[in-house]
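Internal tracking record. Fields below are filled automatically when a chain is submitted to the structure queue. Please do not edit lines marked as system-generated. If the sequence contains nonstandard residues, flag them in the REMARKS field before resubmitting.
Queue: standard
Priority: normal
Entity type: single polypeptide chain
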Amino acid sequence: MSRTNFIRWCGLAAVLAGVLRVITSFMPSIASVELQIVYFTIDVLLLVGIIGLYGFQKHETGRWGFFGFMLALIGASLLIGHDVVVNAEALLYPVAAFLFAVGISVLAIRSWAANTLPHWASALLITSTLLGILGYGIKGFDVLFVVSGVIFGIGFIGAGLTVWLQPVR
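SYSTEM-GENERATED OUTPUT FOLLOWS
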């Protein structure tokens, strides 16, 4: 498979991750095997999707884009680890999600500056991080965490569609 095709398929993985993330934002958080499989699938698609997003714009986003990519990659890998390890350390998920969110936000900021992704997609990815932190950290603001998931999903869909449909540089 050529580099171009690989990056494009990674863009499609980002679209699928975004769609699933939007859907799961409205699902009850009752632990079940089926829900864990869905979360594992999302996290694998996030990992593949972030590889495509970075590969699509690596030259234009520079060192800070690489830094954001690495944070997001580590975060997504830790999310997958959290999914597969039974009785994983409770602290692993928030750390992994934080690393992924900050990494995707740094990459989105660089994408905005480089004009490689639609500005609305970058803005949604950055906004989702801010809302997610508020929703997770402030008691009584749980709804912001749900809104963050929807906004992230839509932004990741937009970024993924751009990678899927635009010529790879």
